[in-house]
């Protein structure tokens, strides 16, 4: 019997798109708690958070043939945010409708800032040495473990750690003023 826990997210997504129920079950088990925490932090309701997670994961399965997923964690986080907004729109009292323009503006501002930050981060990552950039991409965007990366690139786990540390140091240095201004 295949141990799906050993597969990287990208492999599980590919198998799921080929109707592999066990791959979906592994994704479900791997991400349920993270998605629940994300939804609960925004909704502060166990039942609503569980509904969000169920909606997101059901949607993932239903769109398994249509979606192109480059980063499963990012895809699930984005889908969760939209599902949270949907839940909130169902429970917002009618009197709160007056406050919607400010809320929409805040979300729009946050989205614009996030987009700018993502673009800036991609530009910084492009400036890294190739192997360092590849290691960081495998680690952060594809969710691979250090051991998986080391095996795939035929380097030591220590080298993987050094590349990730180097990338993170560069990002921290470049964005220190940005994050300092936020807090």
Describe the model.
78% of the residues lie in helices and 0% in strands. It has 183 residues and is mainly alpha-helical. Helix 2 packs across helix 4 (72-91). The N and C termini lie far apart (49 Å).
A few lines on this structure:
Keywords: Sigma factor, Transcription, Transcription regulation. This protein has 183 residues and is mainly α.
What is the level-2 CATH architecture name of the largest domain? Orthogonal Bundle
Indicate the structural class: mainly alpha
What kind of oligomer do you see?
Answer: single chain
Largest sheet descriptor: none
Low-confidence stretches at least 5 residues in length (pLDDT < 50)? none
Work out the radius of gyration.
Answer: 19 Å
Number of domains: 2
Overall mean pLDDT stands at 82
Q: Counting H and I runs of at least 4 residues, what is the number of helices?
A: 8
Secondary-structure element string: HHHHHHHH
* Percent helix: over 70%
Count the E strands.
Answer: 0
CATH superfamily of the largest domain: RNA polymerase sigma factor, region 2, helix turn helix motif
Shape: globular
Cα(first) to Cα(last) distance is: 49 Å
Strand content: under 5%
CATH class value of the largest domain: Mainly Alpha
- Return the CATH topology of the largest domain: Rna Polymerase Sigma Factor, Chain: A
Give the SSE map.
Layout: H1 9-17, H2 21-43, H3 46-62, H4 72-91, H5 100-126, H6 130-141, H7 146-153, H8 157-182
Helix pairs in contact: 1-2, 2-3, 2-4, 3-4, 6-8, 7-8
